[in-house]
Amino acid sequence: MGAPFWISGEVEGDVYDDYSEASNEIETVVKTALSGIDLGASFKQLSLIPILLAGDDPDYGEVRKYHKKDRDFEFRLKISHAAFKAADALGQRQLIVENILRAVEEMKKMRIKDVDCAKLEQAIREVAASKGWLPPSLLH
Q1: SS3 category, 49
Q2: Could you give the C-alpha distances from 46 to 58, 76, 84, in angstroms and in order?
């Protein structure tokens, strides 16, 4: 089985290095947290491509797809470039985690049978909280 989580990005050059460092760290931690967890027969991978662009072009839309053959959820969701650029390292990780959890919320709306979104969300929240990456707005 492939990795249960993959992250890339469509990222403005001025925040690329910081984003790359943060997303690589998060990807490693989340992959480890999800390995060995059964998230259902219809789930193989969550593929996330956050969008961090300086100009918020309304024509540059977000993407929410489920690829049934590959059992892959693909999301391209925006993160505020200005907020990311202004944030410290912890704040940047919190913004990425917020984006991941938003993707899980979007997965729930898709209502794909045999995917345990609650278990996925819980695992991500737990590992993010243990690292201090859970944004204060998402603590509950």
Answers
A1: coil
A2: 25, 11, 22
